């Protein structure tokens, strides 16, 4: 292989690795059925996590589900071969964060949250 060709291949490989490290490429990958975060109003006296003042930048799926008409967040698709998950934000990350905030009000499958005075059951679903 010529030196110029080898240098070009190395440069392209470095650019691809840099894009993967920054998360630019994995955010466009997606396979399989989509996951959604759903928010369903409930009436309960059990503990709930107050999410009225959460940032939409930190919790885009949660805020999307709470503010949508149908109670469903934007879709999230997993990536092929596990490439996407370490580089992108997912509804599973948000559920894990809620569990850490108040374990008695959340599990990895569902959470009870209070948003603008109303209590919701939030969970990740795959239709």
Describe the protein in words.
The protein has 127 residues and is of the alpha+beta class. The chain has one domain. The protein is built from 3 helices and 5 strands, in the order αββαβαββ. Strands 2-4-5-1-3 form a 5-stranded mixed β-sheet. β4 and β5 form a beta hairpin. The longest helix has 20 residues, at 3-22. The protein is elongated and about 70 Å long. The termini are far apart. The mean pLDDT is 88.
Please provide the count of β strands: 5
Largest sheet, described in full? Answer: 5 strands, mixed
Q: Uncertain segments of ≥5 residues (pLDDT<50)?
A: none
The number of helical runs is: 3
Helix content: 25-40%
Name the helix and strand elements from N-terminus to C-terminus, one letter apiece. HEEHEHEE
Which strand-content bin applies to the residues? 15-25%
The spatial strand order of the largest sheet comes to 2-4-5-1-3
Structure summarized in a few sentences:
The chain is an alpha+beta fold. It has helices spanning 3-22, 60-67, 91-101; strands at 31-41, 49-50, 76-78, 110-115, 118-125.
Short descriptors:
127 residues; single chain; alpha+beta; five-stranded mixed β-sheet
Task: Chart the SSEs and their pairings.
Layout: H1 3-22, E1 31-41, E2 49-50, H2 60-67, E3 76-78, H3 91-101, E4 110-115, E5 118-125
Parallel strand pairs: 2-4
Antiparallel strand pairs: 1-3, 1-5, 4-5
């Amino acid at each position: 292989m010529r030196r110029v060709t080898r240098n070009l291949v190395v440069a392209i490989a470095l650019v691809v690795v840099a894009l993967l490290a920054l998360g630019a490429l994995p955010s466009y990958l997606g396979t399989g059925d989509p996951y959604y975060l759903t928010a369903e109003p409930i009436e309960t006296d059990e503990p709930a996590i107050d999410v009225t003042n959460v940032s939409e930048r930190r919790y885009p799926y949660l805020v999307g589900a709470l503010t949508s008409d149908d109670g469903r967040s934007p879709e999230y698709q997993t990536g092929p071969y596990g490439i996407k998950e370490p580089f992108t934000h997912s509804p599973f990350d948000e559920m894990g964060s809620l569990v850490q905030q108040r374990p008695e009000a959340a599990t990895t499958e569902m959470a009870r949250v209070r948003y603008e005075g109303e209590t919701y059951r939030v969970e990740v679903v795959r239709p």
